[in-house]
Amino acid sequence: MKETVDLLVERLNGLAPTVAVVLGSGLGGLVDEMEDAIRIPYSDLPGFPLSGVTGHAGAVVAGRFAGVPVLFLAGRAHYYEHGDAAVMRPVIETLAGIGISKLIVTNSAGSLDPDMPAGSVMLITDHINFSGSNPLFGEPTDRRFVGMTEAYDARLRVAIEKAATDSGTTLHKGVYIWFSGPSFETPAEIRMARVLGANAVGMSTVPEVILGRFYGLRVAACSVITNLAAGMTGGELSHDETKDMAPLGGRQLTTILRAFFQDGAVHG
Question: Does residue 243 contact residue 26 with C-beta atoms inside 8 Å?
Fold first, then answer.
């Protein structure tokens, strides 16, 4: 990935962020908060995958967020698009290569908790990989045996919780379960997930978290809740609902992240 690393460093024109944020479905509006933004389409960066999912712009947007140098990944490629859980590996490897040390992953998710409705934000404390896949399949070295006991960095979680409190924003906490998608889960699968201890369900994030830990990054993640999961309301789910509802929670997430960066937590 040296070519991509060198190209990205050149395009950043001296900006040296140490934190990157992956933006999930419908959360691209966060880039509007960026000052002096530098926008680089994924298509300009060798190895970066293109996303065919509406709501994912497919661009690196770097600049200053709340006065701090930050790199946003506006959109991701998904396992269900490519049949490859490692589709984001070149991206995460490149981030590590340019000096990113902290990775914040966001997503839109369904809630398994009636007390966590659409528009809520959930800090992910742990995850369940129910997809049957892993982005480190085929890795030839013993580095593939990545410990996941502290997959979600404790200090970053504390800092995000403090940012929520300081900004007066409600922040839920819970376990995220990854289903492969692209079809939504059945009511029976959601009942099973609740028994397993999951609080939110989605089709992303876990591969990036595993890859982040593989490359030595400290990782935190948040879900923006867009709906109650299958079977909990009697209605059918749709991606349109995800896109429509994500900005509601996205505004709360923006408030939390702004406070997180303003507090200097990124340096901790």
Answer: yes
pLDDT digits (tens, 9 = 90+) for 124-167: 999 999 999 999 999 999 999 999 999 999 999 999 999 999 99
Do 175 and 199 meet the contact criterion of CB atoms below 8 Å apart? yes
Q: Which one-letter amino acid corresponds to residue 228?
A: L
Extract the tokens encoding 99: 């000096």
Tell me the C-alpha distance between 174 and 189, whole Å.
Answer: 18
* Model confidence pTM above 0.90: yes
Domains of the chain: 2-267 (3.40.50.1580)
Distance of alpha carbon 164 from the chain centroid: 18
Q: What is the 3-state secondary structure (H, E, C) of the chain?
A: CHHHHHHHHHHHCCCCCCEEEEECCCCHHHHHHCEEEEEEEHHHCCCCCCCCCCCCCCEEEEEEECCEEEEEEECCCCHHHHCCCCCCHHHHHHHHHCCCCEEEEEEEEEECCCCCCCCCEEEEEEEEECCCCCCCCCCCCHHHCCCCCCCCCHHHHHHHHHHHHHCCCCCEEEEEEECCCCCCCCHHHHHHHHHHCCCEEECCCHHHHHHHHHCCCEEEEEEEEEEECCCCCCCCCCHHHHHHHHHHHHHHHHHHHHHHHHCCHHHC
Residues 6+ apart with CB under 8 A from 14: none
Between CA 138 and CA 193 the distance in angstroms is 28
